[in-house]
Here is the input.
Amino acid sequence: MKTALITGSSSGIGHAIYESLKENGYKVYGIGRHDCEIECDLQDTKTLERKIKEFLKNADVDLLVNCAGLGIFAPHEEISIKKITELIDVNLKAPIILTNLCLRSLKKTKGHIINISSIEATKHSKFSALYSATKGGLRDFSLCLFEELRKSGVRVTNINPDITKTAFFDELNFEPTDDKESYIDPKEIAKEVLHIVNSPFVTTDITLRTQKFIINRK
Here is the structure.
């Protein structure tokens, strides 16, 4: 049985991927603050390092999915330093650290790293400077890491989803509409992940778009 580690598994895209992997024969361990097999605040680097090292003493990793993410869309001068640090820690720093900790194990299993970035990593939007910087950094990290790891057999995939109907928007001032062509269902992203991990080829970077761009302002 293959082993997967996944952040953001308690809701949204991460939960859909978690359930899909379980249904398809993976032993899945969620990493997060609540309702996870490995309980840890992703901003707490020392605890994260300790818990992952303890886990790896007894298991190897076949699949690492970095899915946890936070968003804020506002004039940059209005964003608190605390919020800036939080987004960088969760969206970019944690995936880089988790990859570092798991990489020797992934090389042993010739495993797979999947990073869930964002459509905002591929374009330049008003009020998205901070969020796009974290997600663009994650995308570039993924693409560079693929080049570094090609000979090792470890596969690296970056996924850029368009607007997806999840709790991500609960604290934002906009949200997806009910028009099914204007948002992605998290289960569809989970299906794409399963296809990618089962493919004989490497998908290095994939962008999932909606047919329409429509949002509701709150």
